[in-house]
Amino acid sequence: MRRQSSLSLSPLLRVLAAVLLVSTLTSALVVPQIADQQQQQQVFGSVTPSSSWTFAAEESLDPTGRVFPMMKNDLILRAAREFRKVREEHEFFEIVRTPELATKVTLQPIDRYDGLLDAAIIFSDILVVPQALGLVVEMLPGKGPSFPNPLTSPKDMRRLKRHVDVHKELQFVFDAITMTRHALEGRVPLIGFTGAPWTQMAYMVEGGGSKTFSKAKTWIFQHPKESHTLLQRITDVSVDYLVAQVHAGAQLLQIFESWAGELGPIEFKQFSLPYLIQIAHRVKAELVPDRAVPMIVFAKGAWFALEELSEPGSGFDVVSLDWSHTPQGAKAISKGRVALQGNLDPTVLLGGEGAIVEATERMVRGFFSGDGSRRGGYIANLGHGVLPEVSVDAMEVFLKTVHRVGREVAAEAGEDE
């Protein structure tokens, strides 16, 4: 009989989650911990979990019982021939906007890594929100996201739609979520997501990716009032978008602040953190009482923000980490108030099997060593996205190593298998 922990991250359920991010692509895997059958039904709705999923959920109730490996769906697929075949026939945003294709692509890594991945996120992109606001976004081969007409000055905000009906503009995402929930048949849960306001603003002003983000940062220093106006408009759309994803079938939500590290601690507290917290609180408030779901945040590069994001008042249940944290340091700061996820340097996957195994084992054991190792929960993952040159076999070594070390950690802790 497995021992069940009395620790909890929220009144309804505990969550283990994964967050990985490269550029604007957003996809990850997550395992919720269900306290009882009634709560399980609230999370899974009409889709009955398989016996294997029920076993995993029960086992995960003790944070030392298993370490859950998570990988990023669309980034795995970039290296997989199944996805390359789809991309040869369809443009990126065509896949995003076609529910049948988005469902197909979302399921591919679940099937390829059968038994090694614990959840899925709908294949989509964070930049559908700027598209919904009225901006044109293209995905250019070899370059990434591009805005032909970015916001060059605050006056350009007049080009944005003042009122966005997310069901009109983004219904394809909701249809894809519902279709994928049925196609998964309860094998794993499904997660929804959006990009955080500062990250969205940075793309909208820069016109794409940037090494310095000087244009976006110039905005916040020269036009702080207008910057807050833009950030609030993005926030309002993001709240409606996330709430609608849950109604469509998403069982957890995550927010990607991929350019958080471009801000200093003071600017982060002014132009990022308030909007992250606002989204978490507003989404949960609108979904209360019976549809509220756990929320995950990944503020890449904002190592200085872990304390604020770990506080109960942040509204988040899981904080994902990049590799700028040590396991011991992150645990000391978070104090078990949230689950932690991460944080292997993704370039380790280019180092060969020996390097992958050594670094992965060190990471997992690091998060479970020392005082308070049983507090909060932990999810093994990379600290950022999978690099394009990483092989599918290398990622499989990582996943299998996490499973093996997780079993060893459980055995060493005296847990029953």
UniProtKB/TrEMBL annotation:
EC main group: lyase
Reaction catalysed by this enzyme: uroporphyrinogen I + 4 H(+) = coproporphyrinogen I + 4 CO2; uroporphyrinogen III + 4 H(+) = coproporphyrinogen III + 4 CO2
Name of the protein in question: Uroporphyrinogen decarboxylase
Domain of life: Eukaryota
Keyword vocabulary terms for this entry: Cytoplasm, Decarboxylase, Lyase, Porphyrin biosynthesis, Signal
Residue spans crossing the bilayer: none
GO MF annotation terms: uroporphyrinogen decarboxylase activity
Similarity annotation: Belongs to the uroporphyrinogen decarboxylase family.
Pathway, per record: Porphyrin-containing compound metabolism; protoporphyrin-IX biosynthesis; coproporphyrinogen-III from 5-aminolevulinate: step 4/4
Function summary: Catalyzes the sequential decarboxylation of the four acetate side chains of uroporphyrinogen to form coproporphyrinogen and participates in the fifth step in the heme biosynthetic pathway. Isomer I or isomer III of uroporphyrinogen may serve as substrate, but only coproporphyrinogen III can ultimately be converted to heme. In vitro also decarboxylates pentacarboxylate porphyrinogen I.
UniProt subunit comment: Homodimer.
Organism from which the protein derives: Linnemannia exigua
Pfam families, per database record: URO-D (PF01208)
Signal sequence region: 1-28
Gene3D superfamilies the UniProt entry points to: 3.20.20.210
Glycoprotein keyword on record: no
Transcription found in the keyword field: no
Residue ranges occupied by any Uroporphyrinogen decarboxylase (URO-D) domain in the UniProt entry: 78-404
Compartments it resides in: Cytoplasm, Cytosol
BP GO terms, sorted: heme biosynthetic process
Main location: cytoplasm
Enzyme Commission number(s) of this protein: 4.1.1.37
GO cellular component: cytosol
